[in-house]
Amino acid sequence: MSSEDESVPARNPRRELVEKQILDQATRLFAEKGYASTTLQDIADATGLTRPSLYHYVANKDALLSRLVSESTDTPAAMLHEINERTDLGPSEKLRKMATAIALNQAQTADRFKLIIRSEAALPDEISRTFQQSRRHVLQEFVRVIEDGVRSGEMRPIHPRTAALGIIGMLNWVAWWHTPGDPDADRAAAVQLADMALRTVAQTEVGPSTPEGPERAIALIRQDLDYLERLLAQE
């Protein structure tokens, strides 16, 4: 065996299983009771461990919460950036994939997301900064793809940040109303929400062949006039 192989830590399946149980129970308790009201003893009791045994797996409550926050916020931001960097997709398809990814993540990890939102005011400063930074990264990626869509003519000339915040809010809300556990149902909900997200910004009558500029402005005015004529004709 080479020295490089010897430097790789051996997997410990039992430890990984116990750590997962601790994370799952901490997620549930933080979501139900709030971070501030949950104690390490609560987590130990829920996992069937003694409190001294729990310290073999986690240093303190802050370290446990930090890991949960990191896994719940850094991963989605990284996924969005990876999609946005693709050169084989246009803005609309990027937005669809990004919205699907966020909705699916929230649907599958609802308890973790809810615990972060519920405990946001009580988060320790360092963890709070990490959480806020990840949220900004998510928003920036959505703003970026909407700006690209507006410039290309695939999306209506809307305020990108406002549109991004609206879409993110809709996608996040799935954590409250969707019941996770069925992979097919999780994906179906995510796909439908992604379609709804795209429809809120998609250009419906002025096609993508009309980029941002005077010609597009004229086309949009004509579109509004056609809509007004249809309304007047109904009276």
TrEMBL record:
Output the InterPro entries linked to this UniProt entry.
DNA-bd_HTH_TetR-type_CS, Homeodomain-like_sf, HTH-type_TetR-like_transc_reg, HTH_TetR, KstR2_TetR_C, Tet_transcr_reg_TetR-rel_C_sf
**Which Pfam family, any one of them, does this sequence belong to?**
TetR_C_24
Q: Provide the residue ranges listed under DNA-binding region in this record.
A: 39-58
Which residue numbers delimit the HTH tetR-type domain? 16-76
Instruction: Please give the organism.
Output: Williamsia maris
Keywords of this entry: DNA-binding, Repressor, Transcription, Transcription regulation
What PROSITE patterns does the record point to? Answer: HTH_TETR_1, HTH_TETR_2
Q: Which domain of life is it from?
A: Bacteria
Alphabetical list of PANTHER family matching this protein: HTH-TYPE TRANSCRIPTIONAL REGULATOR RUTR (PTHR30055), HTH-TYPE TRANSCRIPTIONAL REPRESSOR KSTR2 (PTHR30055:SF175)
This one is known as Transcriptional regulator, TetR family
